[in-house]
């Protein structure tokens, strides 16, 4: 989850988010080098005593400032395209979950388990127990097994929503009448928080997303309990 005064991205909890962090660092280093170079040029131009004021063109300079930006764009575009293909790759998921956005809560349906479905509402501030986070906790978490490929089908019942979990590198639009899909792998056990990332009305900020990653044995026990309780 995010922390007060946090400047960087959240710690990666999935292989895809690790790749996104690496790409972010790669792009930031290129931006930093360009910024330093431009600042140096500006300083040099402002402090230099010009002697060749009548020069109108320079073929060498024009070639450099055409070729160099093209090379920089290629260095950014290639890893970016690789990431885009990785984000769309969905092969043999171990589990499929349908996430449906409503005004203003989420409902989840485990399509591999018959009758395993529930709604997930934010817990009001007055009902929070010690250790729970305000505006982020829900009454029913989406539980998934660790180190398993989870496919999530995302849609909406009424208006546009967006199912987003920053630490897992996920942000998928929930569009009424349309079924989008995404996939993720939780690298380690934990509780991961997200929120709707599409302005969907008055209570847009009160429909959090909570994914709990647990070992496979614990997940099977949880699924059995939920089916018996239903």
UniProtKB/TrEMBL annotation:
Localization in the cell: Mitochondrion inner membrane
Protein name in the entry: Cytochrome c oxidase subunit 2
Species whose genome carries this gene: Sphyraena jello
GO cellular component: mitochondrial inner membrane
Family matches, as Gene3D superfamilies: 1.10.287.90, Cupredoxins - blue copper proteins (2.60.40.420)
Domain Cytochrome oxidase subunit II copper A binding: 92-225
Catalytic function, reaction form: 4 Fe(II)-[cytochrome c] + O2 + 8 H(+)(in) = 4 Fe(III)-[cytochrome c] + 2 H2O + 4 H(+)(out)
NCBIfam families assigned to the protein according to its UniProt record, in alphabetical order: CoxB
The keyword Transmembrane belongs to this UniProt entry's keyword annotation: yes
Chief site of localization: mitochondrion
Coiled coil: none
Name of the gene this protein is made from: COX2
Domain of life: Eukaryota
Membrane topology: Multi-pass membrane protein
GO BP terms: ATP synthesis coupled electron transport
């Amino acid at each position: 989850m995010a922390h007060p005064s946090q400047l960087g991205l959240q710690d990666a909890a999935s292989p895809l988010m690790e790749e996104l962090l690496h790409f972010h660092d790669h792009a930031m280093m290129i931006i930093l080098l360009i910024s330093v170079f431009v600042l140096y040029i500006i300083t040099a131009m402002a402090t230099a005593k010009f002697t060749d004021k009548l020069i109108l063109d320079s073929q060498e300079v024009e070639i450099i400032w055409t070729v160099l930006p093209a090379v920089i764009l290629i260095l950014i575009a290639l890893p970016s395209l690789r990431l885009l293909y990785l984000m769309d790759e969905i092969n043999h998921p171990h589990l499929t979950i349908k996430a449906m956005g409503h005004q203003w809560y989420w409902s989840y349906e485990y399509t591999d388990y018959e009758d395993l479905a529930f709604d997930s509402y934010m817990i009001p501030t007055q009902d929070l127990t010690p250790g729970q986070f305000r505006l982020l906790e829900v009454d029913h978490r989406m539980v998934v097994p660790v180190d398993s490929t989870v496919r999530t089908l995302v849609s909406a019942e009424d208006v546009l929503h967006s199912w987003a979990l920053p630490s897992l590198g996920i942000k998928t639009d929930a569009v009424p009448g349309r079924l989008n899909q995404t996939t993720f792998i939780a690298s380690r056990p934990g509780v991961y928080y997200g929120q709707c990332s599409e302005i969907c009305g008055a209570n847009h900020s009160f429909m959090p997303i909570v994914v709990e990653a647990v070992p496979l044995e614990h997940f099977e026990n949880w699924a059995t309990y939920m089916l018996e309780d239903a």
